[in-house]
Amino acid sequence: MLKYSFTIVFCFIAYVAMGQEVLTLDSCRHKALEHSQNVKTAEADYSISKASHKLSKLGRLPQFDFSATYNYMNKPQIMEIPGFELPTLGGLPSGVYYPGGVTNLTYHNNYSGGVDLSLPLYLGGKLRHYVKMSEYGVGMAEHNLTNTKENLILQVDQQYWALVSLKENLNVLNKAVKMLEGVVTQTQNWADVGLLTGNEVLKVKVELNNAKLSVINLNNNISLAKMALNQTMGKSILDDIVVEDSVVIASDSPVMVADIEQKAEERHELQILANQVNISEEDRKAVRSDYLPQLVSFANYGFQNPNHKAQDETEMAFVAGVSVSIPVFHWGERHVKMQMKNMESQKAQLTYDKAKEGLILEIQQCVYQVNESLVKIDFTEESLEQADENLQMELNRLNEGIVTTTDVLDAQVQWQRAYADFIDSKVNYKVNLLHYKKVMGSLNY
């Protein structure tokens, strides 16, 4: 019978374990990157920008087109030429008679076809500016894709470490509940022999109930944190997951930044704005090229009926030429457009400068926050050691019957708060270090 009992318990544990998926930080990142619609949208924008850049370069190559038309006329036009006497050089009748005739201006069947070739020779540099604009667009899309991924990794890591923090705080609360249960037992024993009053026992029981209520609330928060992380990873929000890590801090040293301005310029957000500045400048040059001479060559080789380009109706005709367009006077249109583009370029530059100042400040703040987190870990760890020592001393004194429950409960509250502060300080360090790596461009994924 005992054998079957062990088998049932083992199967139940295995079933529960199968229902929970153990996740590491890397697996959470990988699932989130695969699911994120924002990342997929940024990838699509990047592919579109590369295709647009390729198309812009094709605009400088010769263009070949084939065209053909056919028209049927029920009653074609006919011109009748009457006969007349040819004059002499002096204008007198020559006696030579030119017979009249009939000429078809159109036919029942009218058709044409041929191959057209066009090649822009000079458009004021417009094509070159368009190629540069599309090239900067590719850079913008690439930086936007990387920045989107980094923002997602930042979100996943924050949710992951928040769940780890809640898990460790739950362990602390469970220790507190177990310890308070022991205190309840001890105080009840002292009350049974008359060394403590029933009120002292009630105080401990109330604190025990509060701790159990905190466990329930913390479990609810853990469930909500799991739902948020599941949603980010594209899993069902009701899936039960278990995070593998605990908040362990390595012996890290304070961080420093040698050249904050250079680090700010390397940020993806600022690189996007830098490309926007370059695009606005190229756009301004493209508008200016609209008012420069335009030189385009063209050629056509084909046939038509009726054929007015060749001596024989069945002969293939070849036509080639060059078209030149020189803007002369447009009532100040060029001046107004250039003013608009100049203001747009200035606006883009001002946006870049403002963002750069904000990023420099953000980098410096991240440096301060990481270093403060390291100091806070040392302080909270020392406070936890003191609170733990004080709690053990009060518990020993309670066992000896020389202390009240109030002193024990106060020591327990201080220990629990110190433990929670220690966990929070480690989690804050993890999150602040994550922000620091992102602003420094060293966030790997």
TrEMBL record:
It comes from the Bacteria. The keyword Oxidoreductase does not apply. Its main location: membrane. It holds the Pfam family OEP. The keyword Translocase does not apply. Keywords: Cell outer membrane, Membrane, Transmembrane, Transmembrane beta strand, Transport. SUPFAM superfamilies: Outer membrane efflux proteins (OEP) (SSF56954). It is found in: Cell outer membrane. Belongs to the outer membrane factor (OMF) (TC 1.B.17) family. This is TolC family protein. It comes from Carboxylicivirga linearis.
